[in-house]
Amino acid sequence: MVAVGLVGGAMALTAACGGGDGGSGSGAGSAAKADLGAGAAGAAGTASAKPAAAAPTSTVPKVSTAAVSIEPKAGSVDVAPNALKIGATGGRLTTVKVNDRTGKEVPGAIAADGASWAPAAPLEVGTAYQVSAMAADADGAVATADSSFTTLTPTALAKASDNVDNGATYGVGMIVSVNFSKDVRNRDEVARGITFETDNGTVVKGHWFDDRRLDFRPEQYWKPGTKVVVHYRLKSVEIAPGVYGGDRDEPFTIGRSQISTVDVAAHKMTVVRDGVSDDIDISAGAPEHPTWNGTMVIMSKEGVVRMQSSTLPGMTGAPYDLQVPHSMRLTTSGTYVHGNWWSRNSTFGEDNVSHGCVGLKDVEGGGADTSMGKFYDGSLVGDVMTVKNSSRKETLDPANGLSGWNLPWSKW
User: Fold this and answer.
1) Which end of the chain is more exposed for a tag (fewer CB within 10 A), N or C?
2) 266: burial class by Cβ within 10 Å (0-12, 13-18, 19+)?
3) Global confidence as pTM
């Protein structure tokens, strides 16, 4: 009886814990193992165990804190060529693509801080563009923006004329002077639109003398033989409100070196051509009409020129009306180096009798074998002439002719 009670107690215990079928001891052990493995499922009465499902992963994309802005807005027309602005806030620009209707990409660069993008040059006028830009925030989340617009078609043009002929050869002092048909308001953009390409790396810089005149020169005289191309890219540059320019290229060459120095006190001109020096007797401005001191450049070779005293303000002495041979202009105001056939031969090298010009011995109508005839034939537009020791105290105004060499490079 005792044995039976023990077995019954065990069975009762097993029944209470396992909820089994009351079978043999081995069955009770299997049920216990199943309960341990099944956990809550086993407690619920499930005969076989199943693994618990994994927690679901979120698939919602992160919203970028970066934002891209594009001006002008999509669909804009009559847009100024310099009006495109692309920027980013809350992140950095990573990619910017600007293309015209043919698919040609506009060159440009993202700023170092990633906050903006700028084209390398103004956009073309009368052209449709498409813009696509992308920015990323600190976590790498991306924001994008797109736009399309059309630039304006100019209704007014300004002509930019200069003193350079295609393929011509000039002296080492040549200054390229550009004159505009309208007042220029956007000087910086216009100056950037005119560039100089040289075959030896010579750097050229521009200087504004007024609202219509922009002169260009290097720091020192040109090196002989330099090949130059002037690139005008003003078609898409707003010269003045609503006024645009044009595009063209002008090649020219710098010839041999010729630098002349006029010593008014000594009545001599020393001409140095490619290192070879020659002295020529001259007659400069009389005391009442002294020649300008300073550096001048031959602006033009004009041949025989009619010169009249009536055109000279403040002229004193006997009036004159002469046909002057071998005339080469040095200033806008009327200073020339020219032939002189009406003065005595003894004047040259001995006396200054002109009204401010530099005169060399010549014959009426001009002679090829005279001092002036030889100098004229051997000279180029752009050759340098420097005058010193004149009684005139003022130095020639840099804006008078191609006299920009009288202005220091630091002020150019």
Assistant:
1) N
2) middle
3) 0.78
